[in-house]
Design brief:
5-stranded mixed β-sheet, extended, 139 residues, Nucleotidyltransferase, domain 5, 5 strands, alpha/beta
Length: 139
C-alpha cells in the first residue's frame, strides 16, 4: 500500500517538474460561446549543436539539403513555422557562419523563422559578454 502512495507521489512530483510554465499577465478572460478551438501551427525545429552539425527535427541533415527538406514541409503545409536553435557553449566549430548560412538558405522559403533561446535570469537585464582575450583592457 505504501509503495502505491510513494509511486503516486513521485509521479506527481515529476509531473510538476516537467510542466511548461507560461508567463502571462494575470487577467480574467472572456468566455466565448462560438468559435473554434485554436490549432497549433505545424512546426519544424532546426538545431545546430556544438560541433556545427545541423538537425531537422532531431534528424541530421546536410546544409545543402536543408532548404529542400524545409520546402517539402512547406508543400505539405504552408503554415509551417520554423524554430531555429543554436547550442550554447564552447564547441569545436564556430557556429556563427553556419547560423548565417542556414538563415540565408531558409529566408527565401517565405516561412516564419523563430530563433529559440533560453530566457534571461532577470527580466530587462542583458547578459554581459566577456571581452575577447585579444581585446582585454588589462595588461
Amino acid at each position: 500500500m505504501i509503495d502505491v502512495i510513494f509511486l503516486l507521489l513521485v509521479f506527481f512530483i515529476y509531473a510538476m517538474v516537467l510542466m511548461v510554465r507560461v508567463d502571462l499577465v494575470p487577467m480574467e478572460l472572456h468566455s466565448f460561446e462560438t468559435g473554434q478551438p485554436a490549432e497549433p501551427a505545424p512546426a519544424a525545429t532546426i538545431s545546430i549543436d556544438l560541433d556545427g552539425t545541423i538537425f531537422l527535427d532531431r534528424q541530421e541533415v546536410a546544409l545543402s539539403e536543408l532548404a529542400r527538406e524545409v520546402e517539402e514541409r512547406k508543400i505539405l503545409d504552408p503554415a509551417t513555422v520554423i524554430y531555429l536553435a543554436v547550442a550554447d557553449g564552447t564547441g569545436t566549430t564556430d557556429r556563427a557562419p553556419i547560423l548565417q548560412d542556414v538563415w540565408d538558405r531558409l529566408r527565401p522559403t517565405g516561412l516564419t523563422i523563430n530563433l529559440v533561446g533560453r530566457p534571461s535570469d532577470a527580466p530587462g537585464e542583458t547578459q554581459k559578454m566577456p571581452a575577447p582575450a585579444s581585446m582585454d583592457p588589462t595588461p
